[in-house]
Predict the structure.
Amino acid sequence: MSEDLIRALKGALDYSRVYRRQTFVIKLGGEVLADAEVLENVAMQVALLEALSVRVVLVHGGGAQSSELSRKLGLEPELVAGRRVTTPEVLEVAKMVYAGQLNVDVLSALRAQQVRAVGLSGVDGGLLTAARRPPVQLQDDEGRRRTVDFGEVGDVESTDVSVLKTLLDAGYVPVVASLAADAGGRTLNINADTVAEALASALQADKLIFLTASPGLLREPEDPSSLVAFATPAELEPLLDGGSIAGGMRPKIEACIRAVRQGVRRTHVIDGRTGDSLLIELFTGRGCGTMIVNRREMEDYTSKELPRNGTHG
């Protein structure tokens, strides 16, 4: 065993002690699900967390895969401010892709790593109750104010995480597809970032982690060196208001801010395609993405831990 590996194991020991029996909600982006090798690597990292007695809940959507199948069926996808407009026909595609193909793919990858996982959606066990979203006025990615009817899209009204707690207590990893139903049983498409945030808040999770196709939040979308490594909601709100955070990153940052304000200790946005990025983010001081916490947590973090890249872990 090399000295570097020994040092790495010793360095991870303190983290593993802290994380034991903590709850992490991890959202898998469509780009992570699209590549079998990437998904295998993520499953291996989840297996390690489980071996360290971390309670893990996985949440996924599958926007890219849904768009691909929609186009094959002659349905051109429409997204506004990073959120999908869902016609009744597109909802049927979402059911097939999210609760079918992709959920099984994640379960299979976890089983290959000897992780006991159970697939479900927000419809199962009354996990999520949603209401169809009325037409809303918002700012699109071109900066225009417009009224948008998102169709068969729901907003989460309430959660009942009893089924998740039962599975976690029994040693299972729940894998949740981003569909829900209203009180009358009408199925609705829910943004997966919103689902992850709602479940993390309801579980009072210690971490909410988004595995994306981006290194984290960039002040300049085309400049990787502009990574925002560490921030509070108050520091990010001007960027949101000014339109600097757009596209698919916007709902993720908004979800992180809501989760932090509802008691989730730390939220992270990292590139899930990079090998071992989840472990680097969790078990090294330097990290590899963006961490968003409230002001008090930031002060506690910086007083006890070495900041990553001068700011962040």
User: Anything to note?
Assistant: Residues 306-313 have pLDDT under 50 and may be disordered. Residues 13-310 form a domain with the Carbamate kinase fold (CATH 3.40.1160.10). Residues 88-112 form the longest helix (25 residues).
